[in-house]
Design brief:
The protein is of the alpha/beta class. The chain has helices at residues 12-21, 33-41, 53-56, 68-79, 100-114, 128-136, 152-155, 165-181, 193-202, 223-226, 244-261, and strands at 25-29, 46-49, 86-90, 118-122, 141-146, 185-189, 207-210, 218-221. The chain has 2 domains: 12-240, Alpha-Beta Barrel (TIM Barrel), CATH 3.20.20; 243-271, no CATH class. It has an 8-stranded parallel barrel, surrounded by 7 helices. Helix 2 crosses helix 4 (68-79).
Length: 271
């Protein structure tokens, strides 16, 4: 169903209402104007301008190389397309860790220069000072726990996190700390579904999962993954809703064939 111009915008309060009523929250990544326009028109609650742009848009192996300027560029493109969705922008690696003053400066740049509605930060108690400083400026913050891709070199692997009891308890404490600090929602990535359910029941803010089971308040996927544009990534948690890689390649091959044969353009396709 397409969204009309007078549609009500999704806010952090909307998400809180969804959690309280049991209505699931839908979230997808977006990185450019054209794709974001379609996602927004579909009625999505949140568009995440993810640092996964480093992977799917720029071809890097990890999310670490993407810069603050590049994230602002992607976020600006998305914001110009959106009429309904809440636009959350990932703060990239190096823009907030270890220095709360720099964190605030980075968040202010994102909000002022891109027009985004909120920022997302990876980590728990170790980044609380940065989160609190950003929140004092009136900037909404979404947390991110579990598998935190910006810390991939610390983990050394993309396997499921928090399977051991100590890490699970620490994750629950981090979720409570993020809620107490004032985060409006938390993404849980690649953790056991039983633990994710416990976190969702423990805190009053929305919990959005990716590879965290169905007993949370919403779900997020990378748009290139769920559309099947990226055909090399096939984790258990990913449901592919299309196979655009094959469809697009076929279209490109048909175009080449028609150009080479002289069939394109035909008489009705020229002036």
């Amino acid at each position: 169903m397409s969204v009309h111009k007078n549609v009500k915008k999704v806010t952090t309060h909307t998400l809180e209402t969804h959690k309280n009523s049991g209505e699931k929250i839908s979230m997808l990544t977006g990185y450019d104007f054209s794709m974001a326009k379609i996602i927004d028109e579909s009625g999505k609650d949140i568009i995440l301008v993810g640092d996964s742009a480093s992977n799917v848009m720029a071809g890097h192996e990890t999310t670490l190389p993407i810069t603050l300027d590049q994230m602002i560029y992607h976020a600006s493109s998305v914001v110009r397309a959106v009429k309904r969705s809440l636009v959350v922008v990932d703060m990239p690696f190096g823009s907030y860790q270890g220095n709360s003053i720099e964190a605030l400066s980075s968040a202010i740049r994102i909000m002022k220069e891109s027009g985004g509605h909120a920022v997302k930060m990876e980590g728990g108690k170790e980044i609380l000072e940065s989160i609190q400083r950003i929140l004092t400026a009136g900037i909404p913050v979404m947390g991110h726990l579990g598998l935190t891709p910006q810390s991939i070199y610390k983990f050394g692997t993309y396997i499921v996190r928090a399977k051991e009891e100590q890490e699970a308890l620490s994750l629950i404490e981090d979720a409570k700390a993020l809620e107490a600090a004032g985060c409006f929602a938390i993404v849980l990535e690649k953790i056991p579904s039983t633990l994710a359910k416990k976190v969702a029941e423990t805190v009053s803010i929305p919990i959005i999962g990716i590879g965290a089971g169905g007993d949370v308040d919403g779900q997020v996927l990378v748009v290139h993954d769920m559309l099947g544009i990226n055909n090399e990534f096939n984790p258990r948690f990913l449901r592919k809703y299309n196979n655009l890689h094959e469809q697009m390649r076929t279209a490109f091959e048909d175009y080449i064939k028609d150009v080479r044969s002289g069939d394109f353009p035909n008489a009705s396709e020229q002036y």
